[in-house]
Here is the input.
Amino acid sequence: MELRERFSGRCLRRIPFQAYAYFCQATLRFYNCTNNNQEKVLISLEEFFIALQKAIHKETINKSKLSEQKNTKS
Here is the structure.
């Protein structure tokens, strides 16, 4: 099953922002604070793709929890 079949268009547009917010931003803050700002640490494309995978996994879990809650209320 492809992503477009599991997620709405709005959800697919939201995932890159969630990946950055949930999985990249805290890492960058940590590294940039601990190296005394001598050099800025950037995130690589590979690391961002890993963050995207994590965000997709998180969204899948949240979606399944939501559907479980709907089923138990019915």
Observations:
- The first helix runs from residue 3 to 6.
- The helical segments are 3-6, 9-34, 45-73.
- Residues 5 and 36 are 45 Å apart (CA to CA).
- The two ends are 27 Å apart (CA to CA).
